[in-house]
Amino acid sequence: MTSRAEMAGLRPGWSWPQAYWRMVAWEFADLRLYLPVLSAVLILQGAGLALGVGLLFSTVPRAAAVFLVTGAPVMNLITAGLIFEPQLVAEQRTRGSYEFLQALPVPRSAAALAWYTVALVTALPAVALTLFTGVARYHLDLTVSPMVVPAMLLTCLTGVLLGLAVAHGVTVPMVAMLLSTTLIFVMTGFSPVAFPAGQLPGWLAAANQWLPFGPMATVVRAALVSGVASGVPRAYLVVTAWAAGSALVVAWAQGHRR
């Protein structure tokens, strides 16, 4: 009788790196029909936001353009993990393949990092095109620092872990899908990602200091433009705390095993 591991091409006893790379290949193969669509959605999301907002006004002040252009890539980095993953897991629960995937003889950390790799590879081309489009549209000069690497890696990782926490922590598929969809509106309209926190009501601006989206935008913006973002060390701490907390939720929800 064929085991789950044999069906997935996995072998019990593989080392962590072997399991990780096998899961990366599994994810790319399993999502081969979804990823081109997801990539197109991310490109339209980022570049469309950078271009579309400019159509609403005859002129866009430079300060507003900087926030818009440096905030749109953050949405690219977050969307694949935070929005797409809960909907994918909800679909797996609905069609009955969720338990099969959870039973594969693979460390949970290897499976999570494999999905992070897929999300990052899918998001980065959209990030590059979004920045190129925004800079060309508003004639901006970015001062990209080496911190752009850890800032984007951490932002994408936190988005993935938040998405995994929602996906595995919320067991009702419809609720998980609705929650992930709601987070799109929270991120776009109620978090200082593409606009300054000062434009929000005081209580909401204060709340966003402890929520993940604003700090994610802060660390990425600080790495792309100098002299605009403030409170960067604190933002790193907040984003890291959300990543760690989400990882604990995922471990608890999945029944963590090493």
Describe this structure in words.
The chain has one domain (15-254). It contains eleven helices and no strands. The protein has helices at 4-8, 16-30, 35-55, 62-95, 98-102, 108-138, 148-169, 173-189, 202-208, 213-224, 232-254. The radius of gyration is 19 Å and the shape is globular. Residues 1-8 have low confidence and may be disordered.
Labels describing this entry:
258 residues, 11 helices, disordered N terminus
Helical stretch tally: 11
Helix content: over 70%
Shape: globular
Mean pLDDT: 87
- Unreliable segments (pLDDT under 50, ≥5 consecutive)? 1-8
**How many strands?**
0
Category by helix and strand content:
mainly alpha
What topology emerges from the helices and strands here?
Blueprint: H1 4-8, H2 16-30, H3 35-55, H4 62-95, H5 98-102, H6 108-138, H7 148-169, H8 173-189, H9 202-208, H10 213-224, H11 232-254
Quick overview:
The chain has 258 residues and is mainly alpha-helical. The protein is 74% helix and 0% strand. The longest helix is centred in the first third of the chain and has 34 residues, at 62-95.
